[in-house]
């Protein structure tokens, strides 16, 4: 296992022109650098972090931190050696995430925090400058990229990317990288070194008012024809069309032998659909010769728009990094964080940490999966055998696990509801979720 200090020195030696603001590979002294917020929530609501290599790994001595209790909030922050801003410089935020628990609802994102941070009270209401990383709940699975932009219109200054960024939800480690480029105010999100979303900062977030607006002096002409199809004037409704009834008495129905007209009234055959009935008549449609297409409102330059050449400078006096999370099912791991102004630096860091462990971790996971499948198969066969001995039915889909193993308890369900309420409050203060 490479120590935090030696790795940082190696990186700085490799590229003296780059600046590494922060690294963390969670060695045995990690707790001396990180602070759990004691004033954020009641103690019983705060989950404990485990220092572990996980259930499957590439190096048993190389540990990360892992959420260890279900239905808990998790908070943690670490100060940088000194504050920094990235005006005029690239910014790269990179870290490793692994969901060993088959995550179904929970966050795994990291935040860059400013000078107003009180580590003891750090939580969902704490202002942040950048929030980046996976967020999963039900069918919503995305990688958050949220920037605080004080000049944004409206009360919410935390701006979500317009188009959701995909994420990974399997049980292996994945490398998440956010690269902001100063030269052209652009960005790139990479997972395991592969780009999953890139583009212009201005076009991908609502930082600035639109460049153009509909011309208030223009409106659609009264004679503008925007109906693409029209009724065929030559198509005439057939004579007697409306006289065809929708239903008819069933000609095959027979009055029951025990029908008593004095008691039951006059017998009437039940009604059935009329095969000749075609519904309300309407003429066939033909192309409209006067169709001009959809009218487009002419645009003019927006007088309120002005470009911001410093959109890339989303880190302004960053003093710390932090995790502020909720997890229904614990088991998410974090490791190998780097904050720098060089993508090359972050790439080299990943080579010395993340990539060295991947093959071993994958092999160990696949072996564990094979053993799990074999165990379940054996338990299923044992269940089948016992059912046959007792003369009881057995379905091939029956699970070897008891219902109690799989059911969510009422307490957990209440915790989920509490989280939904909590999250709505955080939306107003921290970010907008689309759950």
From TrEMBL:
Compositional bias annotation for Acidic residues: 407-429
Keyword Chaperone: yes
Biased composition (Basic and acidic residues): 366-389
Gene Ontology cellular-component terms listed: endoplasmic reticulum lumen; endoplasmic reticulum membrane
SUPFAM superfamilies: Concanavalin A-like lectins/glucanases (SSF49899), P-domain of calnexin/calreticulin (SSF63887)
Recorded GO MF terms: calcium ion binding; carbohydrate binding; unfolded protein binding
UniProt cross-references to InterPro entries, sorted A to Z: Calret/calnex, Calret/calnex_CS, Calreticulin, Calreticulin/calnexin_P_dom_sf, ConA-like_dom_sf
Example GO BP: protein folding
Location relative to the cell: Endoplasmic reticulum lumen
Keywords of the record: Calcium, Chaperone, Disulfide bond, Endoplasmic reticulum, Lectin, Metal-binding, Repeat, Signal, Zinc
Disordered: annotated span: 202-221, 235-258, 366-435
Cysteine disulfide links: 105-137
Main location: endoplasmic reticulum
Pfam family, one: Calreticulin
Segment forming the signal sequence: 1-18
Highest taxon, organism lineage: Eukaryota
Family the UniProt entry places it in: Belongs to the calreticulin family.
Protein name: Calreticulin
